[in-house]
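Consider the tokenized backbone below.
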């Protein structure tokens, strides 16, 4: 009785070499990937990090924000200085023996003088300093909105990266299961070597994508640590899922809110006020300043029999400045007028920039929300349905492995792209808040944060 022997066709040397390279890459990638795992929520103590706590930390520790705050406080201290009188002067004169009066020799003179600027000059200087302080506060608020935007954007990107890592890890598990099925079929001659190689290649490409995401996470964590003034290698644990904010304002309402409260507009308006007071001060240079003094003259005993012999004398000198040098005053007035017109042009430019940035941020946000809705209502369900259908067909032997791998890739891309779309929509929302200059979470009131 003859027994027929069935042998599994042995792959060529080139195919064997390719398979060996792929398997080696998978082993190296698995070890490296295990070492580069992002922190899991089970490994971190306490609840996941929330955006609100990070924003509060940034307000207290961000270096740029601290610098802007100190500049604001320094500007506030200049207000009292600007409204203060000039320092008085005091002096003495020791007289020689040759200066004689009817009542005796003048021995010593004591004097005190105080300059009194023309009424209105100190007030104008004080108002200039107050306007500069208001501008410094507005600049601080602008930096604060920048920090809020940057921290929130880094948080959203980091959360989306973590979500994408979880999706890719789940896909990696599915692909490895598919690889095992392909190997089992190949071993039983129910499948082809091509299916096995394709499955292994998909596993390797998915591992590569996972490494890229983990590297991206390290970069985003370093960015967040820099914004919080932490050490660059301080670990960032699991993040709480941020809510998707809903915009409750129309574009016209947003433009009106920005006109009233955007920090850049407030800063530009403060500079206009400062230069108006500077112009008024320059015109007041045509008015004279007054210096009032007091002199006390010590007189020694004389040789007369007058009852006032040797009595000290005093006087009150009054001096007035003469603003006659128009070659200094007139150019100063012209300079102040030019600065005022420049500030007014800056305010108009800030308004134009605000109009554009609010509109641009609004359109970008609405587009991002439309894309998120498209993924939620169409792309994700369709990709998942196609994948499960092809998976069931492949397991039943009705579908080719290549079709299943294509469906798996489309499903993965849709899930990762959805997480990126969510992060983009959330980032566009905080950029809209930055363009407007205040929080837009609720419609309750129009006060600034």
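A designed sequence for it:
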């Amino acid at each position: 009785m003859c027994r027929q022997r069935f042998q599994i066709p042995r792959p060529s040397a080139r195919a064997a070499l390719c398979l060996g390279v792929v398997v080696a890459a998978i082993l190296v990638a698995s070890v490296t990937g295990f070492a580069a795992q992002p922190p899991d929520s089970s490994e971190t103590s306490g609840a996941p990090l929330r955006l609100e706590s990070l924003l509060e930390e940034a307000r207290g520790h961000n270096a740029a924000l601290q610098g802007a705050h100190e500049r604001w406080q320094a500007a506030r201290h200049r207000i009292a200085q600007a409204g203060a009188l000039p320092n008085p002067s005091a002096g003495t004169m020791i007289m020689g023996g040759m200066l004689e009066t009817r009542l005796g020799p003048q021995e010593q003179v004591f004097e005190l003088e105080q300059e009194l600027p023309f009424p209105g000059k100190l007030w104008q200087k004080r108002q200039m300093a107050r306007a500069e302080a208001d501008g410094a506060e507005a600049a601080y608020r602008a930096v604060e909105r920048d920090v809020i935007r940057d921290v929130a954007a880094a948080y959203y990107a980091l959360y989306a990266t973590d979500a994408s890592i979880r999706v890719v890890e789940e896909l990696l598990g599915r692909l490895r299961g598919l690889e095992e099925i392909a190997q089992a079929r190949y071993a039983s001659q129910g499948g082809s070597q091509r299916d096995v190689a394709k499955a292994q290649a998909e596993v390797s490409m998915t591992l590569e994508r996972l490494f890229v995401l983990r590297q991206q996470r390290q970069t985003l964590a370093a960015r967040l640590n820099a914004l919080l003034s932490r050490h660059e290698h301080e670990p960032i644990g699991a993040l709480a899922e941020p809510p998707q904010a809903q915009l409750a304002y129309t574009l016209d309402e947003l433009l009106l809110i920005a006109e009233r409260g955007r920090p850049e507009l407030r800063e530009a308006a403060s500079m206009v006020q400062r230069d108006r007071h500077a112009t008024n001060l320059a015109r007041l240079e045509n008015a004279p300043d007054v210096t009032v003094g007091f002199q006390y003259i010590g007189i020694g005993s004389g040789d007369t029999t007058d009852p006032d012999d040797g009595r000290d004398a005093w006087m009150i000198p009054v001096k007035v400045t003469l603003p006659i040098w128009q070659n200094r005053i007139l150019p100063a007035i012209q300079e102040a007028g030019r600065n005022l017109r420049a500030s007014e042009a800056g305010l108009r430019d800030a308004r134009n920039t605000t109009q554009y940035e609010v509109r641009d941020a609004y359109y970008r946000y609405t587009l991002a929300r439309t894309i998120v809705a498209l993924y939620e209502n169409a792309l994700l369900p369709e990709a998942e349905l196609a994948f499960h259908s092809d998976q069931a067909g492949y397991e039943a032997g009705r579908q080719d492995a290549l079709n299943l791998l294509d469906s798996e890739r489309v499903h993965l891309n849709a899930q990762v792209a959805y997480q990126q779309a969510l992060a983009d929509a959330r980032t566009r929302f905080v950029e809209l808040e930055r363009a407007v200059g205040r929080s837009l979470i609720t419609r309750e009131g129009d006060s600034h944060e």
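The CA atoms of residues 205 and 245 lie 35 Å apart.
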